[in-house]
Amino acid sequence: MFMLQVLGLSLLVLRAVSQTVRLAGDSTMAVGGGGSGTQGWGVFLSQFLTIPVVNNAVGGESARSYSDQGRFDSLVNSAQRGDFVIIEFGHNDGSAGAVDNGKQDAVGDGYNITSTVTNASGQHILIHSFAFYIENAIVALLNKGAIPIISSQTPDNIWANGQIAGPNRFVTYAQSIGTRRSITYVDHYAYTAAAYDALGETQTTTFYPNDHLHTSPAGALAVAKAFVRGLLCGNSSLKSRVNSAGQAVPGVCSRIRS
């Protein structure tokens, strides 16, 4: 009996040690960010966790293109039981106009939403909603025994009345996915906006060397801290993997604006 208890404890410890956090997203999360002195926030996340982080974010991707190119399939295949998978899209998912860009999603907050678009060759293509692409990945991850976390996109450096401007529709879509699939939702937009509001427009603007989207390494670190704060304010079991540096990130849970 004693040996069985020891074996069971050893297996439990081994499973905890082998857990990994995997990231799926765009350039705001990816290694190298958007280039030219920028960096993605996912690069800094491992500083605040006791388990390793594998960054599978890719610049320029949307929920649709990440799915169509097989990147979600690869992520699901590599995920192990007990791994955490953070999914964050939205910056590249907006409507493209008359000619499809391979990234836009059908407009609407729901799974069973489709639209027909025309590509550069004049072909008509059926596309699906933001939720369709992400929820299919979530179901596949859950079937593997992984633990998906849906995160809203990060804010652009756009201000209104002394605050970061309000969120777009993809933040709402991400929240709806979390509710519909009963998985952890981190409002990364709101926690980052709160951090930026506290710093002020002048300081925040130093985080954006090239445009209003891609952060410098210093900005990416601030955005990573905002994600950890959002994680600590939620109910994900990933909270138990936040180290002392993560526990000390700035921000509070009660002052997040809508």
Written description of the protein model:
Residues 6-14 have low confidence and may be disordered. Helix content is 37%, strand content 14%. It contains 9 helices and 9 strands. Helix 6 (188-199) packs across helix 8. It is of the alpha/beta class. The strands form 3 sheets. It has a 5-stranded parallel β-sheet with strand order 2-1-3-6-9, sandwiched between helices. The chain is globular and about 50 Å long. The chain has helices spanning 2-18, 63-68, 71-78, 130-144, 169-181, 188-199, 201-205, 217-232, 244-247; strands spanning 21-25, 53-55, 84-88, 114-118, 124-128, 147-151, 159-160, 163-164, 184-186.
In short:
The chain is α/β, with parallel strands linked by helices and 258 residues long.
Secondary structure layout plus pairing:
Blueprint: H1 2-18, E1 21-25, E2 53-55, H2 63-68, H3 71-78, E3 84-88, E4 114-118, E5 124-128, H4 130-144, E6 147-151, E7 159-160, E8 163-164, H5 169-181, E9 184-186, H6 188-199, H7 201-205, H8 217-232, H9 244-247
Parallel strand pairs: 1-2, 1-3, 3-6, 6-9
Antiparallel strand pairs: 4-5, 7-8
Helix pairs in contact: 3-4, 4-5, 6-8
Family: Belongs to the 'GDSL' lipolytic enzyme family.
GO molecular function, one term: hydrolase activity, acting on ester bonds
Signal peptide: 1-18
Structural class by SSE content = alpha/beta
Q: What's the arrangement of strands in the largest beta sheet? A: 2-1-3-6-9
- Give the count of helical stretches: 9
Describe the sheet with the most strands: 5 strands, parallel
Number of E strands: 9
Question: What is Rg?
Answer: 19 Å
Query: In percent, how helical is the residue content?
Result: 25-40%
Report the oligomer: single chain
- Give the CA-CA distance, first to last residue: 54 Å
How would you state the average pLDDT, rounded?
93
